[in-house]
Structures are given as structure tokens and as C-alpha cells.
Write a structure and sequence with these properties.
about 150 residues; Globin-like; about 70% helix
């Protein structure tokens, strides 16, 4: 192989490595909100979550008096803000919203499992799923009160 060909291969390889590192750094700079696909993606996942919860006998009774648009809208805003998006959640804080509901660990776990099902339907990568579930898990102390 000529010296010119070797030098060209080295330059191309160096460029590809730099491009790869740049793409990795750019992805690392994105918020969870951006990596999830923004508000339209959150709306789609929350819409699917409502469908999954409605079919889940473990917890669907808890939502029988809940309007899907109210539940969905507030959850989208909450997730959007929590994931670093531009939204402002204006609902009650989680402790106040769930006081007196006597929610159990099992019900909280069921909702987390249903959330995972909704995320899976949209093929959300494991890293982002973990972050979303982590965001929701951080609320457990304010939501579970029995």
C-alpha cells in the first residue's frame, strides 16, 4: 500500500472517530425530554399508558373517576418538566394530590409496570426507560400512603 493510501486511511479513520465522539457527546448533551422525542412522544406514551392502565385489573379501579384528558395532560406536563423539557407542571404536588387515597406499594408497582409496557410499545431505549421510571420512582414516598 502506498504512503498516500496509508495516510488517507489514517485521515479517514481519525475523522470517523472524531465524528463518532462528537455524535456521542451531542447525544449526551440532550435532555431526557429531547431523547424521548419531545412533547408529541410523551403524549403518545401517556395515551398508551392510559389504555394499559384501563385494562389492568390491579389498578384500573383507582382511575374510574379520572378523566383521561386530565390524567394525560397533567402527566405529560409533569414528565415534560421532569425530563428537562420546556413545560411547567401546574398540578398539585404529589403528596397533596395523593393524600387520603391509601395507595399501596403493589399499586405503585403496577403503575410502574404499566408505564414500562407503554414505553416498550414505542421502543423507548432502556437508558431512557430507566430514567423515566427513576423519575416516577422518586415520587413513591409522596404517593404511597398505606
Amino acid at each position: 500500500m502506498s504512503m498516500f493510501a496509508q495516510k488517507s486511511i489514517q485521515i479517514i479513520a481519525t475523522g470517523l472517530i472524531a465524528l463518532s465522539l462528537s455524535a456521542t457527546a451531542a447525544a449526551a448533551d440532550k435532555t431526557l425530554y429531547e431523547r424521548l422525542g419531545g412533547k408529541p412522544a410523551l403524549q403518545a406514551v401517556v395515551g398508551e399508558l392510559w389504555t394499559v392502565v384501563a385494562a389492568d385489573a390491579r389498578i384500573n379501579g383507582r382511575f374510574k373517576h379520572t378523566k383521561p384528558e386530565a390524567f394525560g395532560g397533567q402527566l405529560v406536563e409533569f414528565l415534560c418538566q421532569g425530563a428537562g423539557g420546556p413545560c411547567q407542571y401546574k398540578g398539585k404536588d404529589m403528596k397533596t394530590a395523593h393524600t387520603g387515597m391509601m395507595l399501596t406499594d403493589a399499586e405503585f408497582t403496577a403503575l410502574a409496570e404499566d408505564t414500562t409496557k407503554a414505553l416498550n410499545k414505542f421502543k423507548v431505549p432502556a437508558k431512557e426507560q430507566s430514567e423515566v421510571i427513576g423519575l416516577l420512582a422518586s415520587l413513591k414516598g409522596d404517593v404511597v400512603n398505606r
